[in-house]
Automatic annotation (TrEMBL):
Residues 19-143 form the SnoaL-like domain. This is SnoaL-like protein. It comes from the Bacteria. Transmembrane segments: none annotated.
Length: 154
């Protein structure tokens, strides 16, 4: 029975609480970086050979320089449209894959606000990431984005 004392969760589904907190911080940082035009810093949250796969874009994006250019195009597109774009990540589920590797799933909304105007939902997606420990940091090795509006496969 709950006694009113603080309870410290040591792990969840085999993942240390500190690692779960670090993953939440990583995903928050990513959103802030790409939305504020800090493309080099955003790309650095991936491994140097990191991959980004999304049906919203014609080709997968692979490697630090291509990830940086991709993030730059995202920010420039918002600026050109006189909009502020926000990545809103929720419902992160962090699970152990193998030692020093996690699988992270979450919901990702892209929201756009016209400067001086209305806000709209651009797209609703899910992300499934392979995240690995590099030194003392977690980095994304592979991101797969799935759009909610994609047709069902028969």
């Amino acid at each position: 029975m709950f006694s009113g004392e603080n309870i410290l969760m040591t792990d969840y589904r085999g993942v240390a609480a500190g690692d779960v907190a670090a993953i939440h911080q990583l995903y928050a940082l990513q959103s802030h970086l790409i939305d504020s035009g800090r493309q080099r810093d955003w790309a650095a949250t991936f491994t140097t050979d990191g991959e980004f796969h999304s049906p919203s874009y014609p080709e997968p994006v692979v490697g630090s320089s291509d990830l940086e250019a991709f993030a730059g195009r995202f920010y420039s597109g918002a600026e050109a449209a006189d909009e502020v774009h926000r990545h809103v990540i929720t419902n992160l589920l962090v699970e152990t894959a193998v030692e020093a590797e996690l699988t992270v799933r979450g919901y990702l909304q892209i929201v756009a606000t016209k400067r001086g105007g209305d806000t709209r939902l651009v797209r609703m997606t899910t992300i499934t990431d392979r995240v690995i420990r590099v030194g003392d940091e977690w980095k994304i090795a592979r991101r797969i984005v799935s759009r909610d509006d994609a047709p069902r496969n028969p």
